[in-house]
Amino acid sequence: MGTYPKEIQESIERVEATRPARMAMKPPRLTLQEQEALLKGFHPDYRPEGKRKLTVGASWGEPVPHELADLLEAYPLLDPREVDVSQPDHDVDVLVIGGGGAGTVAAIWAHQSGIPAARILIATKLRHGDSNSIMAQGGIQAADKANDSPAIHYLDVLGGGHFTNDPKLVRALVEDAPSVIRWHEDLGVMYDKEPDGTMITIHGGGTSRKRMHSAKDYTGLEIMRVLRDEARSRGIPVLEFSPAVELLTDGQGQVVGAVLWNLETSEYTVVRAKAVVLATGGWGRLHIQGFPTTNHYGATADGLVLAYRAGAKLRDLDAVQYHPTGAAYPEQLVGLLITEKVRGMDALPLNRLGEVFVHPLEPRDVESAAFIRECASPEKGGRGLGVTTPTGMVGVWLDTPMVDMIHGKGTFQRALSSIHRMYVRFDIDPTREPILVYPTLHYQNGGVVIDEHGWTGVPGLFAAGEVEGGVHGKNRLMGNSLLDYNVFGRRAGIAAAGHAKKATPGAPTLAHVGRYVEQLKSAGVPADRKAPLLLPEYRGERALSRMVDLL
Amino acid sequence: MNEVTVFIMGKGYHVPEGLTIMKAMEYAGYRLGRGCGCRGGYCGACATVYRLRGDYRLYADLACQTPVQDGMYIAQIPFTPAERPPYQLADLQPRGETLLSLFPELARCVACNTCTKACPQKLEVMDAVQAALRGDIPQVAELTFDCVSCGLCTMRCPAEISHHHVWQLARRLNGAYLTPRALHVQKRVQEVAAGVFKADLDALLSLGKDALVAAYKAREIES
User: Which CATH number does the domain A6-30+322-441 belong to among 3.40.50.300, 3.40.630.30, 3.90.226.10, 3.90.700.10?
Assistant: First the structure.
């Protein structure tokens, strides 16, 4: 052990020197005014050069990151001459696009609502379950303890989102939360519990009660694999390696299916459906502003592109979530998630000198801004107190040895086994040495506008999970994304089933795409820009981790 | 940047030292489809086997978590065929014989320990097979909790066991039937259904932004 380069070792000695004095210390929290000043000064969202206003579509004039605008203002990948949409390969009641958490929950609840399994289809880009849902580590929020209530949870969510959330969606989120946890218990999810069955719950950033439920630091994996197994028990069909490249609409503008692209045979698959649930996840693989990401390989914002062409409105996509603690060293781990649970279990962030510079559990955007300020050079208004790695990455320390020192030897390996395993593979023992972290692109805060039933406002089109917006406003709190996909996956699945039972879909067409193309032409969008992206491009030099140009 | 030579399905490429197998394949020009999922060690999509020059052993690991070594011969496993018998959790009893009755091939285990050696998560896979044979469901659940279903043990097993499906069932039985329920969760679900919190939420939804901010600032934070 002790594989850090010599120049970094010296900083570790400073961390060790300040540790005894920090053990009982609780750094002060920032006031709302201090938070705002920090965000304005250092959060990447506040760099105006990172965004532009949309010049086409239902959310014309809304600012979004350039990386997303380039996909929304882009021509279809699909050539209408190559596919006959009047000849469906599949004809179902409910088509679910996306095989992560939201899609799987939606499919299960569509089935529970009376749609036969054979009349449901999950289409997904990678394998069933390969998603951001499976990568979530820290936990899921639900106000189910005696000192907590849905109303307290509601206030936490709204404050975390800087009061920009859709109140009706937040209400649905917090009111459904306890029943989600109970449903998971019924399905056999192994939550961390006391011997008498009481849930072990801790704080997350921005929570006022300890309501973070977890399954070690594999919470997302444990929930996702149980849901997938349940979908298999129900016999719900899944088409893997088949991302959607376009929605289908009828003469009334109803969504009546989708065109999929078989990544393995390079053929189109036409699916006719009475209702479509969009559960395509987020945008991490767009590497907004050059950031590394925690996200899975397929997180390329396809759902936003498809829904926008069909007339859905988008919201809060000017707000990007950078998770404060992405790995910054070693190179192989750069950008990967270090769960907030590590800070929830009392590990403090420290600068190069071993000094505490921020409360460990501020809301994520504030915490990230504080890390960036600590690392940014004084010429850019920062403090220049980050640790520089041999490859030029910069980070702050997360003092992981504190977890065992405070909670007892063995706690880290038991409660944070995935993080422990990840570092030990590279000869770093996080129970003895601190780890280096820097903000990493983590979550799409906004997305497709929905109502509390997951309806997008476009007839026949529902959305759930990371692709939708409004639940978290401009900043999501830890533990509310797993909750979001369960709450709105369920609601969208039920609503889609209800719609499918009474819908009278017309003949499927790509007419909405034709109309959108006309808008693109009049806006002067360059003809070589195509979307959806489907997969990021990493061949050649692009395989190497990039330096973030913020310092 | 120092370079190493790796052989992807027998074909040699020079790639920078220190890359993971996954990034090395991309650096070499591969556009991954299968064999790539979360890229963070959670989904199990990138099961990979390799040999090193001058070494008889066949190694198994996750491409996204394993650095390349000079002289590595690499092949990815795109898919693991594995048998999952149909079942509904509600129809099953959490009894010792449940696992063996659905997965009778467990009894074919010859205790060779190849599964354990193949596991990229370094789980005690063979101990879990033995626990399943004894019908000790909680022990199986505990030993396999960190399993990412990559299928490498299943591909190497001479007894032809579909390990990850056995583990999945054991964990669900353990979570649903052999662990005490959280009574506070059940109580809260009943309270929500009875409308206990309705007035509080109605009141919050009717507040203007200033009043909401004030209520937010006035929150007590549990220590």
Answer: 3.90.700.10
Query: Is A324 within 8 Å of A364 (Cβ atoms)?
Result: yes
Is beta strand A314-315 parallel, antiparallel or unpaired with respect to A349-350? Answer: unpaired
- B173 and B93: one domain? yes
The CATH number of domain A91-319+445-513 is 3.50.50.60? yes
- Do residues B35 and B67 share a domain? yes
Distance CA A490, CA A279 (A): 12
The CATH number for B119's domain is: 1.10.1060.10
CB contact under 8 A, A134 and B42: yes
Please write the tens of the pLDDT for every residue from A164-213: 999 999 999 999 999 999 999 999 999 999 999 999 999 999 999 999 99
User: Among A141, A225, A236, which would you mutate to test the B interface (most chain B Cβ atoms within 10 Å of its Cβ)?
Assistant: A225
| Residue A258: φ, ψ to 5° | -160, 160
Within 8 A of A191 by CB-CB distance, chain B residues are: 175, 182
> Is A209 in the active site?
no
Find all residues with CB under 8 Å of A311, minimum gap 6, and list them: A58, A253, A458, A512
Q: What is the pLDDT along chain B (223 residues), one digit of tens a residue?
A: 689 999 999 999 999 988 899 999 999 999 999 999 999 999 999 999 999 999 999 999 999 999 999 999 999 999 999 999 999 999 999 999 999 999 999 999 999 999 999 999 999 999 999 999 999 999 999 999 999 999 999 999 999 999 999 999 999 999 999 999 999 999 999 999 999 999 999 999 999 999 999 999 999 999 8
For residue A343, indicate whether it is catalytic. yes
Contact B33 A535 (CB under 8 A): yes
**Yes or no, beta carbons of B171 and A185 under 8 Å apart:** no
Burial of A121 (C-beta count, 10 Å sphere; 0-12/13-18/19+): buried
Domain residue spans of chain A: 6-30+322-441, 91-319+445-513
- A422 vs B contacts (CB less than 8 Å): 41, 65
Least Cα distance to A490 among A107, A140, A224, A64 occurs for A107
Contacts of residue B45 in chain A, CB cutoff 8 Å? 126-127, 130
